[in-house]
Amino acid sequence: MGEERKYPPFETRDRIRKWCDLQERAHSDVAKKLYSWGVYSDEIDQIIVELISDNYLNEERFARAFARGKFRIKKWGWKKIEMELKRKKVSKYSIALANQELDDEDYLGTLKEIIEKKRNFVKANSDWELNQKLIRFALGKGYSYEDVQKVMGDF
To answer: Is residue 88, in this structure, part of any structural domain at all?
Structure first.
């Protein structure tokens, strides 16, 4: 059989509420946490419904906060943010709302900034090689090729 339950039901609910209070959480992260505590499917679903109705969980709010945070702190591009939201099983609707959190001007400005910063550390034998390395770097951060091309044209 599975893992033994870590906390009694009332304590489980109290602890998961406190955990959700610390920061926005995806439904899938909450389910994973509850499962790790030895709580199983029907009860997990019931607890998630309670958390949603008590406004501890809100998928739209999570998606928006996730997109803002990953962009501002880690300087991720939209493609990487979108991929992570999908991995966390966030709905297409909430992902679309999260995309609205990223201002186009700020987005391209941040891309330009990270490319300029990376340019100082990249070793290359030619300008072509340098540009290829910078493009690969930016694509790896989750920026689209079109956006990278726009910004690279400024150098």
So the answer is: yes
